[in-house]
Amino acid sequence: MSPHPALGLLVGFCALIGLLVGSFLNVVIYRVPRHESVVSPRSACPSCHVAIVAWDNVPVVSWLYLQGRCRSCRSPISARYPLVELATAALFAGAAARIGFDWALPAYLVLLAGLLALACTDFEHMVLPKRIVYPVLGLVGLLLLVAAAITGRWHDLLVAVISAIAWFVVFFALNAINPRYLGFGDVRLAPVLGLALGWLGVRYVLLGFFAANLVGAVVGIALIATKRMTRQQQIPYGVFLAIGAAIAIYAGPELLRPFQAY
Ligand SMILES: [Zn+2]
Fold first, then answer.
1. Which of 95, 100, 153, 238 is the most exposed place for a label (fewest CB within 10 A)?
2. Where are the beta strands (DSSP E) in 190-257?
3. Rounded Cα–Cα distance for residues 126 and 120 (Å)
């Protein structure tokens, strides 16, 4: 099947949207774990507290132009800001290239933006904030419902809902058995992943789950072997759940080809 003639436009458009969404994710990643509002006050320099004017807030470009420093006090601004913007743009462009002109594409853009924000808060603070997880769950559910209503893919929606419930139940049970190994943040995230991957098929749900645990195990063993982590330390499992879901979305069709019959 040859790609849609306007696919390049869609990919470029989604990359641009990704830069803007990434700029908002920076605010979310910084403020939500600190229990601050994401809408007010306006962004300010963390060192001198001078508000950042709009033209110094252009994704990536402003950071490069100001050479990674605040315009007022010249204190360094973390490279994380442009990196999150670029990562969001890349995730969005990749999703557009992968999924194409499909009514479900918006649901996956919301999912990927949410997972990037959650991976960052989990990595930095070991938390998967409800204020990120619940809106993402609601939006992904709503957007998939809209996609089902337009395209008549009600069977896919049913599989998605069943996958969401199943993944939630499995994680709920694991958390009940030993909350040290699986925090309740991961339990809340489970239905989000079940919903989004279930829409693609049960094989994608299983791939996302196994990829998350495989990557998590490999990284965990490497960190323990190189003494950068002790066996008692907790790993930010949410980071690996996000990576597993991304693997299923971006590499699923190739990885699952041998299992097409199922
Ligand atoms: Zn400053």
1. 100
2. none
3. 9
